[in-house]
Design a protein that fits this description.
CATH architecture of the largest domain: 2-Layer Sandwich
Order of helices and strands: EEEEHEEHEEEHHEHHEEEEH
Distance between the termini: 34 Å
Bound molecules: zinc ion
Largest sheet: 5 strands, mixed
Radius of gyration: 23 Å
Strand order of the largest sheet: 9-8-7-10-11
Helix content: 40-55%
Number of domains: 2
CATH topology of the largest domain: Nucleotidyltransferase, domain 5
CATH class of the largest domain: Alpha Beta
Length: 265
């Protein structure tokens, strides 16, 4: 018999205490990852593994795992759209921001400028004169000004979206570690932090609150059925291996962010 002190459960493998110390064993699962009950629970974000029993049968080891799940949270997607109290926002590189109501702000515009400004700075650098050096700094200020302006516009539009949809809360994923998760540059990270700060004070002016939720698996989880699997997502496309729900991957993530806030509170 194993419980949390003697076993650690991961998606891909399990770590078990034995008389010879800890061992790690990979899960051997059936071919089709979606249609088996144990996979359904093992990869489901909504169920927690609480204990397990190790059996030896027909010459092989089998681990029987026990899960608990919150049944009330079974149809979270519908609850969110019906009471519409939270607007989920996913931040990223391709799409700078996507809401759970399906509004997209593309990252292309910002990337295009960054390249433009970079080129201008590069051209000036080649001059190497004092005049050029001063100009590089003013190009930098101009770039920051333009960015700031865009982020102000997006944050205004985000708050407007929340109000139009009768939301009282705007939920973002926790910004800690977002660079590693999304492959964003430092520039993007700067933009995410700025955008968040702008939304926060603008929302407050309208009596809305802004919250951050745990980002774990928000891009791998199906916002319709809760099935969580790395292969649900293929780049910008999301297709659930369990229920076949398909949509834009960032939009699906934005819905999960909103749902996670609802479930936590
Ligand atoms: Zn699904």
């Amino acid at each position: 018999m194993y419980e949390s002190r003697t076993a650690t459960f991961h998606d891909e493998y399990v770590s078990l205490a034995t008389v010879d110390g800890r061992i790690e064993a990979n899960h051997e699962l059936p071919e089709n990852p979606a249609r088996t009950p144990h996979q359904q629970y093992l990869f489901n974000d909504d169920s927690d593994i609480t204990s397990a029993e190790l059996h030896r049968q027909h010459g092989e080891w089998q681990l029987h795992i026990c899960c608990t799940a919150d049944v009330e949270s079974d149809t979270p997607a519908r609850a969110a759209t019906e009471n519409g109290t939270v607007l989920g926002v996913d931040l990223g590189v391709t799409q700078l921001a996507v809401t759970s109501t399906g509004t997209f702000w593309s990252g292309d515009e910002c990337d295009h400028w960054r390249r433009e400004y970079e080129k201008r700075r590069g051209d000036l650098q080649e001059h190497g004169t004092r005049w050029a050096h001063e100009n590089i700094q003013s190009v930098g200020r101009e770039e920051e000004g333009r960015f700031t302006q865009t982020l102000h516009r997006i944050s205004n539009e985000l708050v407007t979206k929340a109000r139009e949809n009768g939301c009282t809360v705007i939920a973002f994923e926790n910004l800690t570690g977002i660079r590693e998760r999304t492959g964003a540059s430092w520039g993007h990270k700067w933009a995410f932090n700025r955008l968040y700060a702008y939304v926060e004070y603008k929302a407050e002016a309208h009596g809305l609150t802004v919250e951050q939720v745990n980002p774990e698996n928000t891009s791998r989880r199906c916002s319709e059925c809760g099935f969580t699997h790395p292969e649900n997502r293929d780049g910008t496309h999301f297709e659930c291996l369990n229920c076949e729900y398909q949509n834009d991957a960032d939009y699906n993530a934005a819905k999960n962010i909103g749902l996670r806030y609802l479930r936590q509170n």
